[in-house]
Amino acid sequence: MLSHERIWAAIDALAERHALSASGLARKAGLDSTAFNKSKRTSADGRPRWPSTESLAKIFDATGASIEDFMRLLASSRDDRRGVSVPLLGFAQAGMGGFFVDAGFPEGQGLDLVDLPVAASASAFAVKVSGDSMLPLYREGDVLVVERDATIRRGDRVVVKTLDGEVMAKIMEKRTAARIELRSLNLEHPDRVIDSSRIEWIARIVWASQ
Fold first, then answer.
1. Which residue spans within the chain are E strands per DSSP?
2. CATH number of the 85-209 domain
């Protein structure tokens, strides 16, 4: 069941995912900066105020979030999944099959855990950046949180693992049934076109520790 508190908690969680305050999210969406302030969530007589569908549509457009993403945040607000710990892998570990179960999620002994300050779905795990191929967006040591079940759109930042064990972080440029086209985060590294048959998994980056 939807509740006033859960709706607003999901909006707050969406803002956190993009390193924004509630006011920052409102501005990014082209709304009045006070639209999501806590003082605006109840009326003068104490009745709850709900965000409009227009406001929700604008924050979805501004952040690239889908309705499915928002529903997961609603579920997370119900289950209070903020502050959960997720498995942390290096890029080399992410390329090794032994760390993943058949569903493609990391599992097993020897994995480090990282605490997240944001809500996350059950499919979330983290990858630590190594090297400079992702500059200027991500530096060595940054932690990228990805979700395997998150909706992926053009322009989203993603982590891709191929069947031969290569793991890369790129920007989704185009996706068809036959292949994906990826744009490099670093202009010194080439863009990639990969046949879908060569992809083991692909996950959207939903948060980064920078």
1. 85-90, 112-115, 124-128, 143-147, 157-162, 167-175, 179-184, 192-195, 199-209
2. 2.10.109.10
3-state class percentages of the chain: helix first, strand second, coil last, to nearest 5:
30, 30, 45
**How many whole angstroms separate alpha carbon 31 and alpha carbon 80?**
28
Q: What is the pLDDT of residues 132-187, one digit of tens each?
A: 878 888 888 888 888 888 889 899 999 898 988 888 889 999 999 999 999 998 88
- Please, what is the Cα angle at 63 between 56 and 75, to 5 degrees? 60
Per-residue pLDDT of 69-116, as tens digits, reads: 888 888 766 544 455 677 888 765 554 543 333 334 454 444 677 777
| Residue among 85, 81, 59 nearest 70 (CA) | 59
- CATH of 4-79 among 1.20.140.10, 1.10.260.40, 1.20.1080.10, 1.10.560.10: 1.10.260.40
User: What is the amino acid identity at position 148?
Assistant: R
CA 86, 89, 94, 98 dihedral sign is negative
Residue 70 burial (CB count, 10 A): 19
Tell me which long-range contacts 164-169 makes (C-beta under 8 A, separation of at least 24). Answer: 164/198, 165/95, 165/96, 165/97, 166/95, 167/91, 167/94, 167/95, 167/127, 168/133, 168/192, 169/127, 169/129, 169/133, 169/134, 169/138, 169/144, 169/205
Neighbours of 191 (CB within 10 A): 12
